[in-house]
Amino acid sequence: MNRSPSPQPPPRSSGPAGGSAPAGIEPLPSGPTLAIETREGREHLVVAVGGPVDYHTSPQLLGHLMSNEVRSVPLVVLDLSHVAFCDSSALGAFVEVLRQREEDGRRFALVGLQPEVRRVMELTRLVDVLPLHPTVADALAEG
User: Fold this and answer.
1) What is the dihedral of CA 56, 58, 60, 63, to 10 degrees?
2) How many CA atoms lie within 13 A of 2 on its CB side?
3) What does R_g of the chain's alpha carbons equal in angstroms?
4) 90, 59 Cβ separation under 8 angstroms
5) What is the DSSP string of 75-123?
6) b/e burial code for range 88-113 (CB count within 10 A of at least 16 → b)
7) Backbone region of residue 24 per phi and psi (left: phi > 0; alpha: psi in -120 to 50; beta: other values)
8) Which ranges carry the STAS domain (predicted)?
9) Could you tell me which residues are beta bridge partners of residue 111?
10) What are residue 37's DSSP bridge partners?
11) Residue 21 has pLDDT above 60, yes or no
C-alpha cells in the first residue's frame, strides 16, 4: 500500500501579519484596513480617513496619528467626512490622541462628522470634550 505523507501545517510566523506576537505584546486585530491620506500644510496636517473606524481599524489610525512625523506638527485635523461608522475603540483613540497632543502642547481637531458618527459622539457626550468643526477650513480658521 502506497501512503503519501500526511500534510504538515504551515509554519507559524511572528509579527503583525503572522498573527502571533512576542510574549507580552498583543497582536493587532486582523480585518479591514482604513484608507488614510495625509495632506501637509504650512503648520498643520489634514489626515483624511475613509472606511469604518472600529476595533479592527482604530489601531491603524492611532498608530498613524501617534507617529513621530504626525506628533511633531502643531495642528492635526482629522477629516472624518468619509467615515460612516465608528465604535467605542474609535472614540477611545480620538480621546487618546487629544490627550497626548494637549500634553505635548499641540492641537487636534475633528471635522466632517457624518450623522451616525455625530450621534455616537453626542450620546457619549464627547461633543463636549473633542474639538469638532464642520469643515477643515473652520478648524484651520480657529488657528
Assistant:
1) -150
2) 0
3) 19
4) no
5) EEEEEEEE---B-HHHHHHHHHHHHHHHHTT-EEEEE---HHHHHHHHH
6) ebbbebbeebbeebeeeeebbbbbbb
7) left
8) 34-143
9) 79, 133
10) 48
11) no
For 23-40, the pLDDT digits (tens) are 666 555 556 679 999 999
Cα distances (angstroms) measured from residue 128 to each of 44, 60, 108, 121, 132: 23, 25, 14, 9, 9
Does residue 15 have a pLDDT over 50? no
β-bridge pairing 44-50 and 35-40: antiparallel
d(CA 89, CA 49): 15
Give the position of cell 477643515: 136
Nearest-CA neighbor of 61 among 76, 73, 72, 75?
Answer: 76
